[in-house]
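Hi all, long-time lurker, first post. I run a small reading group and we've been trying to get comfortable going from sequence to structure in the token notation. Rather than ask abstract questions, I figured I'd post a concrete chain and ask someone more experienced to write out its structure so we can walk through it together at our next meeting. Sequence below, copied exactly:
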Amino acid sequence: MSRFPALIALMAAVSSPALAQDWLRPGQTVTGELTTSDPTLDDGSHYDCFVVPTRQGQRLQIDQTSEAFDSYLTIGGGICEALIDPESDDDGGGGLNSRLIHVGRSVSLTIRVNSLEAAKTGAYRLSVTEISGATPTQGN
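-- Answer (accepted) --
Happy to help. Here is the structure in token form:
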């Protein structure tokens, strides 16, 4: 298990710019921009990628906001282009903003910042916050 974050870092270091993933730490906020030069998913939407190290049981709140487009946030393991066990959110942060809660598993978490609609670009804000409290229950 301890080789997993090193493998992600190695893959990002030797891959093309389209596969680049920036590292964030809990407590950080980044202001970014989706542009037409960013990679696209099959639906034609542009995305940026970030990786956050996590600890077992650590609760993280991930928020993506934008005034330029409808935010679509996806998290999971592995590399951004092929997330393992992905979770996603469209409007959980209120309005057109996205929010996900993640409980750490001692491996890195990959975050894909995306727009809900194809070809939408513009500025966004991504924040990763460590939160306390009971673990949320899963299921609908």
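A couple of things your group might point at:
Confidence is low (pLDDT under 50) at residues 1-18, 135-140.
The beta strands are 22-23, 29-34, 47-52, 59-65, 71-77, 84-89, 98-103, 109-115, 122-131.
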